[in-house]
Amino acid sequence: MEQIVQTRSVPVMGSYDVVVCGGGPGGWVAAVAAARAGARTALVERYGFVGGMATAALVVPISVFTYNGQLVCGGIPWEFVQRMVEADGAEVEHPLGNISHDPECYKLIAQRMLLESGVDLHFHAVLTGCVREDSRITHVILDTKSGPRALEAKYVIDSTGDGDLCAMAGVPMQENTMPLQPPSLCFCIGGVDTDALELIHHEKQGLNYHNLRVQTKLRELAETEDVPVFGGPWFCSIHRDGRVMVNMTRTPADMLDPAQATRAECRLREDVHAFVALLKKYFPEFKNAELLFTAAQTGVRETRHIKGEHVLTGEEYLNAVHFEDAVSRGAHPIDIHTAGDTTQKCQFLKNAAYIPYRSLIVPGFDNLLVAGRCFSADQVASASVRVQASVMGLGQAAGCAAAQCACAGTSVHKADVHTLQAMLRKWGALI
Ligand SMILES: Cc1cc2nc3c(=O)[nH]c(=O)nc-3n(C[C@H](O)[C@H](O)[C@H](O)COP(=O)(O)OP(=O)(O)OC[C@H]3O[C@@H](n4cnc5c(N)ncnc54)[C@H](O)[C@@H]3O)c2cc1C
Fold it and tell me: Which UniProt keywords apply (predicted)?
């Protein structure tokens, strides 16, 4: 490809103790945690709302807060769930602690928690670069409608999901040894007989929870007619008023590659319409259904995994190894979706697992933390931690650690982990 060189001067529009890049479940919770721990905090987000996959991609189940009925992901994430329940925007499915939510309520409650905590929001700002001086990232560079802007940062948290900031700063990435999990375009349909439809209910520990009846029938139909590749399907409806959120499309794609991402968006949009037609034709509860809207973006399950101070392995995770520097927990199964067919490999945990602080930091980087699905884990451990409750737990830990390091003026590698754990426990984390 032809290369051009561009130099430009960039106005610095703010200076912060902590700048969090990306406002998904990991990022917005990290920003609240950093601000509540006393740091002057900014949150950068390319959309005009937070929630990441939970809102922009209509991933409406938040998995999973409890193990055997016991809360394992406490603190700010659980406070958020309770506030959504109070606002009639979420339902806790017992005993697994899976949460079905209304994405509009999610956006509003998360935004309120951010503003109440004193976080400066920088929406409609796309992270496009950073300035690195030796072991520190001193500025993040944002593209805005007014042109490029910089934010000066004492500490930065990469919560872009894809590890964009890490990639820009030259953080080493792991080689993926398994195929990437597929992206999916979720959608909302109306006019469904929700009383007759089996919804997502994760009340059965150790069992999978997709709609087996619809899955079996679609597999049969695939032998005689054109049925696109599907997963699940998973149906979610908190108000049972005929509106149902559907997760069933999938296609293989590396969503970091713009050509593949474009192809995936177009393929999956065709598939959404094909599935709505199939559901209407073959399933009585969908007889009067109509497509209301698709998600703003195709949901991305997996891209980069950084190589951090510690790479959390599937073996450690499945054995629930208790790390001395544990800062968060995970209780969701190892949940691997196959890209090219309808299968999903689920391995259920024998105990709720632990995530060490060292998998949020990177050798050679003194002021960088990573809170989100791109944190330092192999593809097996990551296939569990990637879900929202555990990612929020990473955010809570990273935000608190960044604020404490900013206050003490230390490298993230010299963080006082006992003080960090004490603050997290005070907030309600069960580590
Ligand atoms: C189809 C699908 C189904 C899933 N099902 C479930 C489920 O049932 N239960 C569950 O709990 N989880 C589920 N997940 C997983 C979960 O939604 C994600 O792993 C989780 O949202 C990851 O959180 P994150 O904060 O790391 O990243 P994301 O949610 O991806 O958030 C990243 C945020 O950063 C922003 N951003 C990214 N790049 C930039 C940039 N360069 N500049 C500015 N902003 C940027 C994005 O706009 C976004 O807001 C599913 C995921 C998918 C795709």
Answer: 4Fe-4S, Iron, Iron-sulfur, Metal-binding, Oxidoreductase
Mutate to test the pocket of ligand 1, among 49, 53, 145 (most ligand atoms within 8 A of CB): 53
Across residues 291-313, what is the average pLDDT? 98
Tell me the C-alpha to C-alpha distance, in Å, between residue 431 and each of 287, 394, 421. 48, 12, 8
Strand duo 41-45 + 120-123: pairing: parallel
Tell how far the Cα of 134 is from the centroid of ligand 1, in angstroms. Answer: 30
Q: What is the pLDDT of residue 205?
A: 52
Alpha carbon separation from 51 to 25, 127, 141, 286, 406 (Å, rounded)? 6, 17, 22, 29, 26
β-pairing, 290-294 with 368-370?
unpaired
Mean pLDDT of 339-353: 87
In angstroms, rounded to a whole number, what is the distance separating the alpha carbons of residues 366 and 137? 8
Across 368-386, average pLDDT: 98
Residue 391 beta carbon below 6 angstroms from any ligand 1 atom:
yes
In terms of pLDDT, which residue wins out, 238 or 164? 164
Answer yes or no: is pLDDT of 208 > 80: no
* List of domains in the chain: 12-178+302-427 (3.50.50.60), 187-294 (no CATH)
45 Cβ closer than 6 Å to some ligand 1 atom: yes
Q: Tokens 């426990």 sit at which residue?
A: 425
Is the CB of residue 384 below 6 angstroms from any atom belonging to ligand 1? no
27 lines ligand 1 (CB under 6 A): yes
Counting residues of the chain whose pLDDT is more than 90, the rounded percentage is: 86
Structural contact between residues 295 and 185, judged by C-beta atoms closer than 8 angstroms: yes
Nearest CA to ligand 1 atom 3: 59
Does residue 202 surpass a pLDDT of 70?
A: no
Distance CA 302, CA 12 (A): 33
